[in-house]
Amino acid sequence: MRKIIAVFVMFLVVGSVALLSACAPKQKAPSVIKFGSAMSLTGKYAREGKFYKDGYLLWEKKINKAGGIKVNGKAYKVKVIIYDDESNPAKSQKLYEKLVTSDKVNFLLGPYSSGITIPDSSIAERYKIPMIEGGGASGKIFSRGYKYIFGTLPAAGNYFKNTIEMLHMMAYTGKNSAKTIEVVHSDSAFDNAVAAGAVRWVKAFGLKLTGVQEYPSGSNDLSSVLTKIKKSNPDVVLVAGHTHDALLFIKQAKENKVNTKLMAFTVGVQAVDFRQSLGNDANYAVGVTPWLASMNFKGAVFGTASEFAKTFKAAYGYAPDYHAASAVAGALAFQSAITKANSLDPKKVRDALASLDLKTMYGEVKFQANGQIAKGQAVIQVQNGKAYAVFPKQIAQKELLYPAPSWDKR
Amino acid sequence: MNKVLKYVFLAIIAVLIATVPLYSGAFITRFLIGVILYAIMAEGWNVIAGYTGYPSFGNVVFFGLGAYVTALCMINFHTPFILSLIFSSIAGALFAIIIGIPILRLKGHYFAIVTLGIGETMMAITFNVPFTGTGAGLSLPLASNPNLFYYVSLIVLVIFIVFLKFILSGRLGYGMIAVREDEDAAKMMGIDTVAVKIKAFAISGFFTAIAGGIYAYWSTFIDPPTVYDPVMSIKMIIMTVFGGAGTLLGPVAGAFIIIFLSDFLSTHFTILHTFFFGGLIVMTAIFLPKGLMDVLSQKGIGWKYFIENIRKHRV
Questions:
Q1: Nearest Cα to B144, choosing from B217, B36, B66, B37?
Q2: What are the pLDDT digits (tens) for A346-373?
Q3: CATH of domain A31-155+295-365
Q4: Closest chain A residue to the Cα of B145, Cα to Cα
Q5: Per-residue pLDDT, A203
Q6: Number of alpha carbons in the 13 Å side-chain half-sphere of residue A204
Q7: Which of A388, B155, B242, B287 has the lowest CB atom count within 10 Å?
Q8: Which structural domains are found in chain B, ordered by start?
Q9: What was the ipTM of the complex prediction?
């Protein structure tokens, strides 16, 4: 009997919570546009999650200071609700459902990482509420024919496209040519997509592939990978992994005296703390990035890329990398689309997003038909402790230093 | 009179639970689907660990296997969802039998370590076998009606509990408890302990795999780190122990309360919630080592009960 009563009490709790959420006071004539995001604030993506959270909140502050967003002649304040998904996709989906059904947000800002964005995009699609995500680049997010998901990171398959094109051009000019390439990637959803794309581009540009190696995500030892590289001795290694992996790769390459003429990484090289923690060893490392503070992008609200970086640093005490810029670009896209649609109707804003062509401090924000941004990756290189764009020519700040000297000659 | 009241209560509860999606929002429904899936998993862990005394630390392996079987069936052969779940459950039970034959000979922490390894091994295999989509994961179609998952998972949980109640009052149930209390003595009494252990493990795998299959279609995307996440094994254990290991409804209560608290804390304290949640687990382990169901079965709760617990377990 006690147990039965206990179960009954338990059920009353659920029931009352359900009722409360159902009869939550309906907002009368809301003068607030609500944006919602479930971001990884704890767990394995906590580091990147913070960049996005700070980016979203900086935008919120800036917009509200400027008077909010005008729709139909009425100024709306902006509110960004952020929850912690613990880097867990199931939790993230649950929180997006909460944002849509009980917080009644108008629009969704995305989570971080492809593995979490793919399931979350189905919530946006189910409720037909547009989501702009700045943290997932895998083509799988955009290959399901969904209409309500937009992304501000360049396609994963094209991450190394410009790097490989650059190597191809070098081969063409004859001097300092790179001919053989090895691809190394972690086993995550995103890095698989990057590697598959890299292999495709290596072949398309007529370079020689010496091998593709996979290692487990979050691995603390890459020496077996490096031993194989030492054996196949390629001119160039392309590494698709997270920041931790790139750090480990360079440290262990030095320990194992693996000398390649060029090492390129998807994530890491852009970040200031990456270069700080490696010191001199970071030099010559090549990375790709959709954004650097020194690039000549410019747009409304935040001004130029470097002005944005200054504002961001003043607010949070650290310099933003492309994660934060990508987050803000997504929020700016929403702002512009809402103004353009002159409505808060999700369908109308969605259509405005599909035809958007906006200049921002992150570059041009223009979405392809599948929802992913039409944008390339610049190639950057660490030279004397600073990252500079080296390719494509239009935005290059320095010449590529190639080949990198061997570890004992640095 | 008391009895009539009890049935009336039960009937009201049953109707209210069965009709949740009709009167509550989508978020509550999603929350409860999560609770029910974990309740199935925790109950699955309860069968092998709570009743049989073999603490498996890798029960998530059945969840992952079930998720992949359902996903692969639905993607490659376009089998209906329910049929895919049946395939998943069979795969889960078969896998439990195959690995159970060698590893159920181990006892105590040796068994725990091996089960931990099996989860990791299956994750590595899934990462490297091409037809599972490797690390890129598998995408499933969007279900037309999300309430489907509520009804399916609820029915599975009810079947599981009724089935377990039936088992427990029979030969197998007593065999399981005998193995837990003293395996050698059970063997001396003529119980086929090997068969009992394997059957218990197979039941555990059977239902946990169904939970995995439901999850796969529900979330629309699975990849190895998500469905073979060792943290899930730990959660099953925490929920079962919190609710009461070796009790029929303990894991269900544990799953509900743990998920409710975890969600409540994480939406109200965006960063500090892990601290509160961790503290809560530590407190319950100290004050309620036998779980909630044990508290409910006591007549009159006072400080004495908690102090007795601390004394008995020599904290």
A1: B217
A2: 999 999 999 999 999 999 999 999 999 9
A3: 3.40.50.2300
A4: A126
A5: 92
A6: 14
A7: B155
A8: 31-312 (1.10.3470)
A9: 0.81
